[in-house]
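Handout, section B. The chain below has 210 residues.
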Amino acid sequence: MEKVEKIKQAYIEFFLENGTAPPSVFSFTKKLKMKESEFYDHYNSFELLESDIWLGFFKETITKIERDSVYGTYSVREKLLAFYYTWIEVLKENRSYTSQVWRLIDKRRLKTPVFLTDLKVAFKEYARDLVMEGKESKEVQPRKFIDERYPDAFWLQFLMVLDFWVKDKSKDFEQTDAMIEKSVNTSFDLISSSALDSVLDFAKFMYQNR
């Protein structure tokens, strides 16, 4: 899939240099010295290309955490922490692009941005597997009807982590690491047992880092 990676990288570079997608597939492929039809062999539009770029970041994250033999021994809570920490490391390698794209979206709209559509499906499937594993290990309290919505809640958490990281100005994104730890601990306290102390601690942290 060398050609796909070439297309992805060229698109990212164009976006960073111009702050927007190329004006047309024709002009884009012409600069790449590539036939327009070669682009359409892989993508029908720039929106689908962008969606695949972000899905690629997710797949790279999953590959990295699953490559670590210790990951399989983690609790569900620790697995989600490992995912987020690794996700941020992957995004760091593409911070200029990812942060610029994220800043351009209208966060007042509830609709999922197109570039996150495929990633959302993949992440919620990952979260659903974690919830099922957590119910088996007693880390997640089975709650009729409610526990079916946990992947949706984790998706909102995922977006919150992404938004926090984009805005984080701390050294080596230390505040993002702290935010991940507190948000994951809070969410698992909420879906397992008593959560009051964690909720108050997390609320205080978010207020202090507005």
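Note. The longest helix spans residues 46-67. Compare this with the example in section A.
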